Amino acid sequence: MKKMKINGAFLNANRAWIFLIVVMIIGVFTPKFYTAYNIKAITGNNTLFIWLACGFTICMIAGNMDLTVQYCSTFAALICLGTHSRQKWPWLICILVAVLMGVIVGMINGLLVTKLKISAFIATLGMQFILRGLMYLYAPDEQSIGRDMAANEFLNDKLIKFLPFSAYFLICLIAVLIVWIFLRWTRTGRNVYMIGGNIETAWLAGVKSSRITILTFVISSVLCALGGALNGIFSGAANISMGEKGISPLMIGMTATIIGGTDTSGGSGSVLNTFITMIALAFLKGIFKKTEMQVLVISIIMILCIAYETIAAFRRSKILGIRPNLRNEYLREKGKA
Amino acid sequence: MSDQNKTVLSPKTDTRKTEVNKGILLFNRMGIWVITIALLILGTIIAAANGGHFFDKSNIQSILEAVALYGMVAAGLFYVTYSGNWTDMSIPLTMAMAGMLTVQSINLGFPVALLIGIATGLAIGMINGFMIGHLRANPIIWSWGFNLLLSGIIRVGWGGKQLYADTVAKQTDFAQHSAQTFYSISRTYIGGIISLMAIVMLCMFVLSYIIHAKTSFGQKLKLVGSNYEAARFSGINCQKIVMMGYMISSTFAAVGGIFYTALRKTASYENGTGYDFTCLTCVLLGGTLLSGGKGSVLGTFGGVLAYGILNNILSWIGIGTYTKYAVQGMVFLLIVFINTYTERKLGRS
Amino acid sequence: MKRRTTLVLTGVLAAALTVPALADNLEDSKAKFEEAVQSVMTTDNHLMMEEGITFDIPEAQGTAEELEELDDSNSAKWHYYEYIDWDESEDAEFPASPADGSIGKHVISIVHGAHAWTTCYMEAFEQACEAVGMTVDIYDPNWDQSVQDGYIDQAINEGPDAIAVIPLSADHARQQFKNITDAGIPAFCTNTTPAADAMNYILAYTGPNDWYQMRNLGAALGEKLGGKGGVAYITHNVGGSPYYARLYGPMTELADKYPDIKTLDIQSPGFEAAAVKQVVSDWITKFGDELNAIVLADDSDQAIGTAEAIEAAGRDDIIVVAAGISKQGAELIQAGKLYMASYQSCQADAGLCVRTIAQFFNGEEIPRVSYIKTDLINQENVESFLPCQW
């Protein structure tokens, strides 16, 4: 009985990995699934969502929601390809301009939340509309920008042909690792978890909570902007209405964050888990080819995760609410204190 | 006693402001109606500058009809925001699902189909209310996830198809007649002037107002919304109250969804897209606090009107559809900021 | 899964049977093709797999950059939007036709997204494929560019005999079709017009001639208006090929033939009836009697919203024309609320694509660009187009 309990907690803590393994086992029974071409295609096509999911995760660890991720990345892609084709700037400058846009969006988000005390959900919701309007102002009658195929052909066909991953995916992997190390091993990174757990205690403990909150929004927006800009370059076009119909990339990012085990009220979670979940979701999409089935399967997994966490929290709070000391005694008896 | 303490212990005088800024108080009390009147004046000027009449019969009609569907949903969504649960993200698919099931059951006759549609909303509200009110799930995450699940169910269940009431209906007079009745509800004009949709919206606001202001449920909800723990310790069954809030919200959304489907003549999973954010904008414009416990149905009605008037003015100026997004976003942020700011200045938050 | 096993089975059977009797399969395919062309009907009783229309592209009046300088209402400006005018000398090397018959071939079709039109298209595609003995898998990327890219990669991975795509973005089409052609799979583009340079990687394009039918619609509208009045436009999704065709097609036609007709406003409220209704109501208030006609890019939701607004304002005199044709549109025409709509057969669109693919497998010469037949529908002839396809 005791072992089962620990086992359950262990399973829950590592559910991202378990999800990935299960999906990979199902993949064995899917014809033509483990081909180099397919793996490359699946990971490459879902890389944009990995960027968004990781940005969303960071904000959620800090206890906020960032709804701008999707429009931020689309806008960045438009700016990146737009400046390249209209102003003829070199790619590096275009990417920098797009990232700068991300920094500005993140700053505005952060300032709205910390200085004007608007809750993150509402602030980023408003920003989402503003970004959407700006996007159409920037590209008024074009569905997509970008006709320069040279860079795109070079990047996709010539660069690292021997690996079953695209260069875009590898860049994303590096970025995720950097963010993971930052969150796990640096003082500032740990502070992000602190303000997510309890912003007032963190403030009392001397953490500059406003600054950290702004920082998380900036990191999130920069990740999305960089991801969007690179996606634009690698796929050769930036589409203005990306994700406005069907399943929105924001939704996929949120799903990956939640299945990956990030606490919905902040304070715990890991970018790496989100990354693993995102890979699993990408594989899942490769297995269930029809969009309808994808939506159903992904949403069922997500709902189960939310329901599990809700019920667990409910039972915890029930015990806590009645007699907190009894629960402590109970835990001590079980040897889990 | 206190005088003594003051003279002995604290020679310094208290420099904190105690009097309340009149403007802030006025705004906090009147809120949306100040904005609505300002928008009305602005609209009159702009319309006059463009050589038209803002208070023209057709323009007023156009504003009322444009907001009728938003109004129906916002009148219910108000309860979710008011109960301190921010917003119900499952509104789009509640609307879609209600429309789908209404059309699917049109063979049973129009009244039965209508009831089934409304019952759909009630059921979705119960599930949401149970998870959020009873088990205390994160309201946004849960309702958003549930929205995705409903979307998946509709997509798989109906294979991504669109449903037309007159093709679903059997080739009998009764079924065809009920299909035509269904289509006509969004196209009926009472006395040739005001549409049935606008009337239904007004009725729903009146109903909502009565529930909020005249029942004990409304009073309890206020306490639950402003302080959940205090409400619990004063013996209120918070779980039940929040659940009822969600049930009202989803039911109203279902009615909105049925009218939307009738207007569009097709039921599909994409009905209701965007209603979640638009209706939240209306509710917040109406001065309802996101943290709950403050706001009124009358304010929400003002918010809905203000949203309609704002859109109308933007069309008068000749702003394109997409620029409207940016303007709406800025107005939205400004209003929310003013709301939270005045609330803080009055020391209530 | 089931379909795949049947596919494998048919593949094995075909291999076992057709190697000695390769010519037989070709003969059978040709016979089956002829029968299909004669017998398969659309739901509104027209031939589904009729031969398409081809024509020579007129000379452009300058390069693309020069034409961009011209006024919006000048028809010369839109040359490169209207015609798929590409440089054939840069064509990629296309996979050669196996010329062993269409029976037993597997096709993957990737559409653009869920819609009533799409459902109708998909059913017609399956029906037509079955009629010529091909199997088909259809993927629906839900209007998402990146999802469509993903499906194209998946389709390539599965290695079918041909891939047909409705590209979501004209500009991005080149990249998508390049991937398919590079993988050695015949690539067919259908319905939406790709950017001209994408044709270098497309074996054949089939679809509706949106410009032509919208110009006809514009001409009919100008005649009805008697050469004067004010016209307002509601557009398709900004930036797509239907956006240009359905906005500038009628606009340039009116400007050419009836210079007294004014363009009042252009709005893109999308496809929500309520939003369109609001836009039209605002127009009626703003322009009053100056507004005489409205051109719509869609005859379902947009037409419903417009009709509602006109009815509410009591302005029966406003003439509404739309690109069509849907069930809602036909009803509105019958009720006299929509003056005219263009006839763009959804099922013939799918039929023409399947026809072209089948001809390719049968080793016949196929036109690189062909269009489906079109017509104009008004209250008098609407009966012959019923019941509507979608």
| SSE series of chain C | HHHHEHEHEHEEHEHEHEHEHEHEE
- Described by the principal axes of the CA atoms, the overall outline of chain C is globular
The stretches of 5 or more residues of chain A where confidence is low (pLDDT under 50) are none
How many domains of chain C? The number is 2
Q: Which secondary structure elements does this structure contain, and how are they paired or packed?
A:
The complex is a heterotrimer of chains A (337), B (349) and C (390).
Chain A: H1 2-13, H2 15-28, H3 36-61, H4 69-87, H5 91-114, H6 120-138, E1 144-145, H7 149-158, H8 167-185, H9 187-197, H10 199-204, H11 209-235, E2 238-239, H12 249-259, H13 271-287, H14 291-322, H15 324-334
Antiparallel strand pairs in A: 1-2
Helix pairs in contact in A: 2-13, 3-8, 3-11, 3-12, 3-13, 4-5, 4-6, 4-11, 5-6, 5-11, 8-9, 9-11, 12-13, 12-14, 14-15
Chain B: H1 2-9, H2 22-30, H3 32-49, H4 57-82, H5 91-104, H6 110-134, H7 139-157, E1 163-164, H8 165-168, H9 173-184, E2 189-190, E3 194-195, H10 196-214, H11 216-226, H12 228-233, H13 238-264, E4 266-267, H14 275-285, H15 297-317, H16 321-345
Antiparallel strand pairs in B: 1-4, 2-3
Chain C: H1 2-18, H2 22-39, H3 64-68, H4 79-82, E1 106-110, H5 116-131, E2 135-139, H6 145-158, E3 162-165, H7 173-182, E4 187-190, E5 204-207, H8 210-225, E6 229-234, H9 241-257, E7 261-267, H10 273-287, E8 291-296, H11 301-313, E9 319-323, H12 327-334, E10 340-344, H13 346-361, E11 369-371, E12 374-377
Parallel strand pairs in C: 1-2, 1-3, 3-4, 4-5, 5-11, 6-7, 6-8, 8-9, 9-10
Antiparallel strand pairs in C: 10-12
Helix pairs in contact in C: 5-13, 8-9, 10-11
